[in-house]
Amino acid sequence: MSDAPPPIALAVVPSPGHDDPGHPEHAGRIPAIVAALAADGWGDRLPRLDVAPAAEDALARVHDRRYIDALRAAMARAPGVIDPAPTYITSTSFDNALRAAGAAIAAVDAVLDGRARSAFALARPPGHHARPAAAMGFCLFGNIAVAARHAQSRGIGRVLIVDFDVHHGNGTQEIFYDDGNVVFVSSHQQGAYPGTGAFDEVGEGAGRGATVNVPLPHGAGDAAFDRVLADVVAPLAERVRPELVLVSAGFDASFRDPLAGLAVSGAGFHAATKALADIAARHAEGRIAFVLEGGYDLPALGEGVVNVVRALHGRPALAALGRSERAEPSVEALIDAVRGRHRL
User: Fold this and answer.
1) In the annotation, is 129 catalytic?
2) In whole angstroms, how far apart are CA 336 and each of 231, 232, 341?
3) What CA–CA distances, in Å, run from 145 to 27, 44, 74, 224, 271?
4) Main-chain dihedrals φ then ψ at residue 280, nearest 5 degrees
5) Model-level pTM greater than 0.85?
6) What pLDDT score does 2 carry?
7) Which residues, in sequence order, are CB contacts of 107 under 8 Å at separation 6+?
8) Longest C-alpha distance within the chain, in Å?
C-alpha cells in the first residue's frame, strides 16, 4: 500500500445559516458542488479535512480589529445588508465567516504538513473582495489572504496568489499591495464589478511589481486563460519562485454565469488547474491550495470544481455543459502590454 498523500483533500464549509435564497451567493452553492462530485464518481473518495474557526489573531493579520469587532456586533442587527453589492448578513454570518477562513487555513495546513498534495477550501461566504476594514462584494473576511499570512506564520516566505474569478480580487490586492513577498495575479473581466484591476495597478513600495492585473475583454474564454497562464503567470513564477501557490477559484468566469461575460468552459478550468499545478510542482514542491470564490450558475460551478479534481488526479476534462459558440476576442495586445509592464 502506498503512503503517498492523496492528490487533493477538501475542506467543506457549506454555511447553511448564511443564506438569502434570492441572492446569487446562497446556501445552495456548496451542496451543488458536492452533488456534482458525487455524480462524477468521487463520492467519499476525496479526503475531508477537519475545519476549526479561524482565530481572531489570524484574521487580524489582514483585517483591522475594529472591523472584526464591528462585524461581530452587527450580528445583533441581522438579517440585513452591510454593503451595496448587496452583501447580506444573517445571525450566523460571523461564525460562518470564521469557519470559511478556517477552511482556507485547513487547506494550507494539509498541504504544508504533507497530508495532501493539494487541497480545496469549498467554503462560503467567499472572501476576495473583503477589504482590510470593510465587507464588500458578498465577502466578509479575506479567506485567501488569511491563508497566505497563516502560511507565512509557519515559515513560508514567498506566496503566489492567482485569482481567476471573473471579478477582480480588489480586497486581496489591497491587503498585499505593498508586500513584495505575496505576489498577486488577477485575470478578470474588464469593467466588471468592482471596477478595479487595471493593468497599470502594479503595487507600491516594497510591493511594486508584485501585483499583476490582466483585465480580459468580454467574451474571453479558454484561449485567453491559456495565454494568461503560459505568458504571464508561468514566467512570473520563474522570477518569483514561490514556496506556495494559492488560487482564488471563482467559477463565474464560466460562459454560463449570469453575473458576468467571460466564456470559460469546464475544459478551460481543467487546463488552468493543470497549468497551475505544474507551476507549483516546478517551484513550490507541488504545494497548491484552492479557495472557492464566485460561481453562480450551479451546474457550471459543479462542473468547474469537478474539473479541478479531475485535473489534479490526472483524469481528462469533463465538458458535459459544452462551451460558448462565440469566437473569442484577441488578447494579444493585452498580454503584450502586461508582459511589457512587468518585463516578463
Assistant:
1) yes
2) 9, 9, 9
3) 23, 29, 23, 26, 25
4) -65, -40
5) yes
6) 58
7) 9, 11, 49, 119, 120, 121, 147, 289, 290, 291
8) 54
- What is the per-residue pLDDT for 12? 98
Q: For the beta carbon of residue 154, count every other beta carbon within 10 angstroms.
A: 12
Ranges of beta strands (E only) in the chain are 9-13, 80-83, 87-89, 118-123, 159-163, 182-189, 211-216, 244-249, 288-292
Contact 336, 321 (CB under 8 A): no
Q: What is the pLDDT of residue 232?
A: 98
Q: Judging by DSSP bridges, how do beta strands 87-89 and 80-83 pair with one another? A: antiparallel
Can you read off the three cell numbers belonging to residue 224? 485567453
Residue 269 near residue 293 (C-beta atoms within 8 A): no
* Inter-helix orientation angle 65-74/93-112, to 10°: 130
Domains of the chain with CATH codes: 9-342 (3.40.800.20)
> What's the grid cell of residue 111?
498541504
- Percentage of the residues of the chain whose pLDDT score is greater than 90: 98
Q: Which of 63, 129, 167, 270 is catalytic?
A: 129
- Supply the DSSP symbol for 35: H
Provide the mean pLDDT of the chain: 97
CA dihedral of residues 119, 124, 128, 133 (deg, nearest 10): -130
